[in-house]
């Protein structure tokens, strides 16, 4: 390969690895950065949980402290009995004054009677002085009076965190407050309540002053109670209409999952200590959050820079290895003698070899690479079929045999193999691999071989027909002897009848009745001889047409052809037949039966001092589609050493002058190859009339019908 091409592959591989490494680095950086954000969020989660708990505990302690103050006033002032005298009121007033003086955060302490009228009221002024109010107000309509009145004796009412209101006006400067009230009962009758307003500014400061977080307090309706931006605090009371759901879009998700924020910024906890629950929400301070993220980014970028510097030699080495593999692959493909190509799904060539260039008549690969095959190649070549390419992409692969006529009118044959290939780089891509294998010589050899096979089959069929006819001819001598034996009696009848007529004529004793009877006898004998000749002639007709026939008729015809010799040798045929209609080759079936019967006869003749028996049985098989025929003798059976050979052609145990060795071979060919049945032989031991015999048993299984509309 030229040095320029090698450098081209090397540089392209190097740049590919660099780009791929850069893409992977960016993806890895983004993943790590997101993980770092998650890690940072989780690392502050524990801090947020701790701060939530401290705030909750502090608020609970504050509320419990004021509950104890109310219990102390209640007990010391004997409020289980309603104060009715001036002295009793004076005692209650002194206890209330003592409590408000001792707690600097308590800025209002009141006793309100059962009708909602303030009876005793102490206020802490801005200068920290305690003032007993003379102008008392009716609080019967205020929410805290109504809710406290509904409580049982041992309960306390704790109001929401809000701004203090005096005479229906928000006190300024703003004073955050929480009201704690205790109902007073005498003999289970509501007699009023004690209520403390304490300055919750210290509580607000405790909630807000956290170094790592900006703090929000939000009521159940999404209004801000506290906000890092003071202008947005108390949005409901101040009617500023700032809503938490507008500023914190995923607030609902935070309410469901307080410690999982998709923006990795917020933590939330529900506080259930006041009249209505509220939420405290922590947001990581942007300055701190940004600083830590920047530090993490810097560390990651420095790590990636070091990895990049160290990875350059590795990238060079990988590029060298990759380019070497690419060059090796290119050499391998180019040295394959068959045209090879790889296309994309649009038909554009991506990889081709030298053999394809030569086949298509192009000089350089650049003339085809990244060019559309259906547009560049105008000729009808076997490798360029849009329809077959699409079919291969649908099915996964496609094999076709294509004929190609060259410009000099020579015919060539190609086996075209198309295979769908899915390849993963950054994305899944689908390509089509095509290989064109020249099978012209194989095709011609196959055609020659097919012709030879056809000729050989025809010759074999001719030989088989000759063997069948030869087998029939071998039976002809025996059949002629049988005919001669059958003709003796009718010829004797004819001769005797003719002589009787002549003598009676000469003696003038011939009468009409005798003449008619004698002529009938002669005619019957002639008809019998004619039927014998017809049977003989039909059997030797050389045709193979199928016809419908009765099984019993075919067996009877075969028996009639061998009966004279069976009678001469005292062979008894015992039949047990179930007649069945067949559609098959009747003449050939008769020939097969004759071969089996003649072999049985020859074996039985050898046994001179025993009873000679032939059993012929038939019955319909259980499947109702086949008939089972058994021909069994008592001639002692077939020797075990030859039982597997009796159906071989030209195998015989008889003297050469007495046997050809093709009888049983042809019977098996007829039954199994021509009639689609089964013929097998075995030895059997059986009893007949209380005598045990051994003999050969031939079993034939034939289909009832082989077409002809399933024997109608």
From TrEMBL:
SUPFAM superfamilies in the cross-refs: ATPase domain of HSP90 chaperone/DNA topoisomerase II/histidine kinase, Homodimeric domain of signal transducing histidine kinase, PYP-like sensor domain (PAS domain), Sensory domain-like
This enzyme's EC code(s): 2.7.13.3
Keywords: ATP-binding, Cell membrane, Kinase, Membrane, Nucleotide-binding, Phosphoprotein, Transferase, Transmembrane, Transmembrane helix, Two-component regulatory system
All residue ranges annotated as the Histidine kinase domain in the record: 482-706
Subcellular location: Cell membrane
Transmembrane regions listed in the UniProt entry: 6-34, 301-321
Superkingdom of source: Bacteria
One Gene Ontology MF term: ATP binding
Pfam families: HATPase_c (PF02518), HisKA (PF00512), HK_sensor_dom_bact (PF21623), PAS_9 (PF13426)
Membrane topology of this protein: Multi-pass membrane protein
This protein's name: histidine kinase
Source organism (scientific name): Candidatus Marinarcus aquaticus
């Amino acid at each position: 390969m030229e040095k320029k091409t090698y450098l081209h592959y090397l540089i392209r591989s190097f740049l590919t690895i660099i780009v791929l490494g850069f893409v992977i680095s960016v993806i890895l950086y983004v993943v790590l950065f997101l993980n770092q954000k998650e890690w940072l969020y989780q690392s502050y989660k524990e801090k947020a949980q701790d701060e939530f708990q401290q705030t909750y505990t502090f608020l609970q302690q504050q509320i419990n402290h004021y509950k104890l103050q109310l219990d102390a006033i209640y007990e010391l002032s004997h409020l289980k009995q309603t104060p009715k005298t001036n002295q009793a009121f004076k005692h209650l007033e002194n206890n209330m004054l003592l409590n408000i003086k001792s707690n600097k955060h308590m800025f209002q302490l009141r006793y309100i009677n059962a009708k909602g009228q303030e009876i005793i009221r102490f206020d802490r002024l801005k200068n920290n002085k305690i003032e007993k109010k003379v102008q008392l107000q009716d609080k019967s309509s205020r929410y805290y009076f109504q809710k406290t009145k509904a409580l049982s004796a041992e309960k306390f009412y704790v109001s929401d965190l809000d701004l203090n209101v005096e005479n229906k006006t928000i006190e300024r400067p703003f004073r955050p407050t929480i009201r704690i009230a205790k109902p007073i009962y005498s003999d289970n009758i509501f007699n009023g309540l004690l209520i403390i307003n304490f300055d919750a500014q210290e509580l607000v400061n405790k909630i807000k002053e956290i170094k790592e977080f900006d703090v929000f307090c939000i009521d159940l309706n999404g209004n801000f109670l506290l906000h890092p931006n003071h202008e947005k605090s108390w949005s409901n009371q101040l009617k500023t209409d700032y809503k938490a759901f507008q500023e914190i879009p995923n607030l609902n998700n935070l309410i469901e999952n307080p410690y999982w924020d998709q923006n990795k910024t917020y933590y939330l906890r529900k506080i259930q200590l006041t009249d209505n629950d509220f939420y405290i929400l922590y947001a990581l301070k942007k300055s701190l959050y940004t600083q830590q993220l920047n530090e993490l980014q810097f560390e990651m970028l420095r790590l990636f820079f070091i990895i990049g510097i160290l990875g350059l030699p590795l990238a060079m080495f990988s590029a060298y290895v990759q380019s070497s593999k690419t060059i090796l692959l290119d050499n391998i493909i180019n040295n394959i003698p068959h045209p090879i190509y790889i296309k994309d799904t649009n038909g554009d060539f991506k990889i081709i070899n030298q053999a394809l260039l030569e086949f298509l008549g192009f000089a350089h690969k650049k003339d085809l690479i990244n060019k559309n095959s259906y547009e560049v190649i105008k000729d009808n070549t076997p490798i360029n079929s849009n329809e077959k390419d699409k079919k291969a992409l649908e099915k996964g692969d496609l094999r076709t045999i294509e004929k190609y006529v060259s410009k000099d009118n020579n015919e060539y044959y190609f086996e075209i193999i198309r295979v769908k290939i899915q390849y993963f780089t950054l994305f899944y891509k689908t390509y089509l691999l095509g290989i064109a294998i020249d099978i012209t010589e194989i095709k011609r050899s196959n055609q020659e071989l097919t012709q030879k096979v056809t000729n050989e089959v025809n010759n074999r069929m001719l030989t088989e027909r000759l063997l069948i006819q030869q087998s029939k001819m071998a039976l002809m001598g025996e059949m002629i002897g049988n005919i001669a034996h059958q003709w003796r009696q009718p010829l004797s009848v004819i001769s005797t009848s003719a002589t009787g007529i002549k003598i009676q004529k000469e003696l003038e004793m011939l009468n009409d009745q005798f003449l008619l009877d004698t002529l009938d006898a002669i005619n019957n004998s002639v008809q019998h001889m004619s039927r014998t000749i017809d049977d003989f002639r039909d059997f030797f007709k050389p045709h193979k047409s199928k016809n419908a026939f009765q099984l019993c008729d075919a067996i009877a015809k075969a028996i009639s052809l061998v009966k004279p010799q069976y009678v001469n040798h005292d062979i008894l045929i015992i039949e047990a037949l179930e007649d069945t209609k067949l559609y098959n080759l009747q003449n050939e079936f008769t020939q097969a039966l004759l071969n089996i019967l003649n072999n049985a006869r020859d074996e039985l003749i050898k046994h001179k001092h025993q009873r000679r028996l032939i059993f012929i049985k038939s019955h319909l098989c259980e499947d109702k589609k086949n008939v089972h025929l058994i021909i069994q003798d008592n001639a002692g059976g077939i020797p075990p050493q030859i039982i597997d050979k009796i159906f071989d052609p030209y195998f015989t145990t008889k003297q050469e002058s007495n046997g050809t060795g093709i009888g049983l071979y042809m019977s098996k060919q007829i039954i199994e190859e021509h009639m689609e049945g089964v013929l097998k032989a075995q030895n059997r031991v059986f009893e007949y009339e209380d005598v045990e015999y051994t003999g050969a048993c031939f079993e034939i299984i034939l289909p009832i019908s082989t077409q002809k509309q399933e024997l109608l």
